[in-house]
């Protein structure tokens, strides 16, 4: 029998140390549950989700009651504090050497603490935390128009825009170069999903709290081509599972794959936004370096230009794009020369800040934003079908959600690639593994990662093939019984693609893209 030890910590001081008084809450923990990975075990229809964590632990001291002013943590019980779980192990009763000490299992950010007091002194508190993707998704971003940009660079630009540290990300070099890419007031995770879907890659979280972006070739070479472990229903199998479940494969059969490609035409320089306030309503900029900030958005209902977005904004020019006068109706002294302008340009907006260095108050009697508008061309629709599958299963259509496909060639490659996989039934499994069964099994639960390849054998299902781990769900009770459920997508269909510099064409391979 194997047993596991866990170190559970909260960085209450928000200093990255993890060893301050009260940071280690391990001795108080009653139960743990955590998860991360896709919302469904499919590389086509599954979406990256934010990890989650729930810890139930003892609060007899009242230290974790946010309104308890006597708590040593008073003032530090705040959302956004980092939370992590690390694992160690040993043979029962701990005579085996610790071999997985400080093995990261989960890391994220505190969402909330909910005390559950009891009249019978069984005081507990529930800690809830979310993974990096959930934490980042609390922010909205706007990105300036970029052209001919790799998907991996776009992911990095998004993370830069929200201040996510470079050391807390692992970004593979993308395969797709997007002709255009920008984002307008979109939640961070949704913006990254736009890129993920265009690349046909995978966005996820690492066990130690990093944001991970894998390009679509990631699983076509190296370790993902080799099974890391075999789990079987055989009685004498070294690695086994306590439960197995097969999902209905029919909803994930697709024999019509569609993609839309959207291209644009750049128009001439035009006024795209005008400040609506004028005359008596003209905004006041106070004297002596007073500032006013405006946001110009396009397209907007008042624009005379019929277009979809902005290729490039023009920095406002004094007297042409803005006028400042000592009188609201423009009858006073023109002090525009004393007013400076600073701008930040985004895809569909421009932030404009005016600063008045004059000794007199001024009124903005004119402000406009010029730029070159983008007109959306007629969309190009690419469709690939499989007649045999349509006859067998009926018409089943899947539209490509990628918004930034560069051309119809890549759209067709995407359709053919996925049609070759999903026109026929693909097995999707979930297995539950008991980490306490043996040292070898516990080691697998601790070390297996999202994207790892494993072999599953089940005689009743007629399954003996490789799968990728797409999601993991862990549950540890008060007795340290540790159960792990892996959601698995078929890996066999992803083993026979030909990739440049990796495979031998026509030797049990077919073309990928």
Topology of helices and strands:
Layout: E1 2-10, E2 29-38, E3 48-58, E4 82-91, E5 103-116, E6 124-130, H1 132-136, E7 140-150, H2 151-161, E8 169-171, E9 177-187, H3 188-199, E10 202-205, E11 211-214, E12 230-232, E13 243-246, E14 256-261, E15 264-266, E16 270-274, E17 284-285, E18 290-297, E19 309-314, E20 322-325, E21 339-345, E22 349-356, E23 362-376, E24 380-385, H4 387-393, E25 397-399, H5 408-422, E26 428-434, H6 439-447, E27 453-458, E28 463-476, E29 482-490, E30 497-498, E31 510-511
Parallel strand pairs: 8-11, 12-27, 14-25, 30-31
Antiparallel strand pairs: 1-4, 2-3, 2-28, 3-6, 4-5, 5-6, 7-9, 10-11, 13-26, 14-24, 15-23, 16-23, 17-23, 18-22, 19-23, 20-23, 21-22, 26-29, 27-28, 28-29
């Amino acid at each position: 029998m194997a047993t596991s030890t866990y170190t559970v910590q909260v960085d209450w001081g928000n200093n990255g140390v993890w060893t301050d008084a009260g940071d280690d809450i391990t001795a108080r923990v009653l139960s743990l549950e955590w998860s991360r990975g896709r919302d469904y075990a499919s590389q086509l229809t599954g979406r990256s989700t934010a990890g989650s964590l729930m810890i139930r632990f003892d609060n007899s001291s009242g230290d974790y009651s946010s309104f308890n002013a006597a708590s040593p943590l008073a003032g530090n019980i705040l959302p956004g504090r980092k939370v992590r779980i690390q694992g160690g192990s040993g043979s029962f009763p701990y005579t085996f050497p610790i071999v997985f000490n400080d093995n990261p299992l989960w890391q994220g950010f505190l969402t909330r603490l909910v005390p559950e007091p009891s009249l019978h002194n069984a005081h507990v508190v529930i800690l809830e935390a979310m993974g990096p993707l959930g934490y980042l998704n609390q922010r909205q971003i706007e990105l300036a128009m970029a052209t001919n940009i790799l998907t991996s660079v776009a992911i990095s630009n998004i993370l830069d825009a929200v201040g996510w540290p470079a050391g807390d990300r692992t970004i593979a070099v993308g395969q797709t170069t997007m002709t255009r890419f920008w984002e307008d007031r979109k939640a961070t995770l949704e913006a990254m999903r736009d890129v993920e879907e265009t690349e046909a890659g995978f966005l996820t979280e690492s066990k130690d709290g990093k944001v991970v972006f894998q390009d679509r070739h990631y699983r076509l070479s190296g370790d993902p081509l080799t099974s890391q472990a075999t789990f079987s229903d055989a009685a004498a199998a070294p690695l086994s599972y306590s439960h197995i479940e097969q999902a209905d494969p029919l909803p994930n059969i697709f024999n019509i794959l569609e993609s839309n490609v959207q291209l644009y035409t750049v128009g001439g320089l035009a006024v795209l936004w005008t400040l609506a306030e004028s005359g008596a309503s003209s905004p006041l900029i106070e004297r002596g370096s007073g500032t006013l900030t405006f946001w110009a958005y396009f397209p907007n209902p008042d624009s005379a230009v019929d277009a979809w977005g902005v290729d490039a904004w023009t920095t406002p020019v004094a007297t042409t794009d803005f006028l400042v006068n000592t009188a609201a109706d423009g009858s006073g002294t023109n002090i525009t020369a004393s007013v400076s302008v600073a701008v930040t340009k985004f895809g569909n907006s421009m932030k404009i800040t005016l600063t008045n260095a004059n000794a007199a108050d001024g009124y903005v009697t004119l402000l406009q934003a010029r730029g070159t508008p983008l007109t959306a061309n007629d969309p190009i629709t690419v469709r690939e079908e499989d007649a045999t599958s349509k006859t067998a299963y009926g018409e089943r259509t899947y539209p490509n959600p990628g918004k930034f496909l560069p051309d119809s060639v890549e759209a067709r490659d995407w359709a053919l690639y996925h049609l070759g996989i999903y026109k026929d039934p693909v097995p999707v499994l979930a297995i539950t593994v008991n980490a306490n069964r043996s040292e070898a099994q516990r080691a697998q639960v601790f070390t297996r990662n999202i994207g790892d390849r494993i072999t599953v054998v089940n005689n009743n299902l007629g399954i003996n093939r490789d799968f990728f781990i797409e999601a993991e769900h862990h549950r540890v009770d008060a007795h340290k019984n540790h159960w792990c459920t892996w959601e698995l997508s078929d890996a066999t269909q992803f083993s026979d693609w030909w990739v440049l510099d990796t495979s031998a064409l026509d030797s049990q391979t077919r073309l990928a893209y």
